[in-house]
Amino acid sequence: MQSRRKDFPILTSATHGxxxxxxxxxxxxxxxxxxxxxxxxYGYYNVNANIHxxxxxxxxEATEAHEEARATVQRFVNARRASEIIFxxxxxxxxxxxxxxxxxxxMSAGDEVILSAMxxxxxxxxWQIQATRKGIVIKVIPVTASGELDMxxxxxxxxxxxxxxxxxxxxxxxxxxxxxxxxxxxxxSRNVPVLLDGAQAVAHLGVDVQELxxxxxxxxxxxxxxxxxxxxxxxxxxxxxxxxxxxxGGEMIASVSFEKTVYNELPFKFEAGTPDYIGSTAMAEALRxxxxxxxxxxxxxEHTLLEYATEELKRLGNVRIFGExxxxxxVLSFLLDGIHHYDTGVLLDNMGIAVRTxxxxxxxxxxxxxxxxxxxxxxxxxxTQEEVDKLIGGLKRVKExxxxx
Length: 405
Ligand code: PLP
What we know:
Helices cover 40% and strands 16% of the residues. The protein is of the alpha/beta class.
């Protein structure tokens, strides 16, 4: 894996005082390999014309590249059809799309959506907006002390009014890999569809939407070595056909008159306006890059780092680790006793070590854990054991500094 670090020029950049960057904030966004950055430049230099509408050569080439990117995503998540792959701005927009369109068609006041206590704000607030607008009701699965979903509670939350389950596949705070298959199976036994937020899963698990039998699946390119501003909503055709468009505009129509507008077929019905056709091709490049190495190989390396980091962190002592699920990936959240997460983050940053501090866009989970924030180190396949050692060394230094105060 170490040999692939050269694909990421930013990893050799310097931070404060010329210290080499130790980038451990991969759950927030991953770094981009040269191939992905080059694909963006290539697109703008060589294949830039608005897509789907032009008869000219360049427009056709750009359209082909964009649709080929869609097919690449389809293969990556093993969707049945390319038309089940909707390009969005990211996970957040994909979830907002479902929250808006699904609740418009399939929910009325008093109908219920099941979320969990470990959701990112982007899988809470869109539902709260619908709660305000339509009177839908949000039910929440609690999280156990080890950071797993309470599956008995999950089953007990279902009622006659349950219309959708919307849950994260992997927690961005706890690293917990939720039992997606079990969640889907139970929901389907109650005739309820499931949306999985795959933002933290795609780079670490081989996602197969058919095997999961999930109804909707959302993720962002930038969490899997791709560009910012592009993401995916996968939806089963029968659901995408059934729910109404999310936004109106160009591309999403078959015909428009002031009397009657006919919407376009899938996937275009959900893609109003000029899409990020350069971003989509760069995303496809990122997926090819990741597949070329192998998500399983990446995940195995990340797991070794996670286990090593967890052990070393425990050996430090006076530390509280959040999230010790049996099935966990790539994220290590913690607090040093008596030291504010922000102080830890700033001091580590001074040593060139980039970690995340704060509530990680999961304030309800922070409340459930009884804290305001945490420090989070998150690993990608390009991270090394030496970098984990630097993190642990940095944390020792933080503790020493605080002892002297
Ligand atoms: N869901 C989870 C679990 C996340 O970790 C994130 C981002 O950190 C999101 C959703 C939102 O992703 P984006 O900001 O790319 O839309």
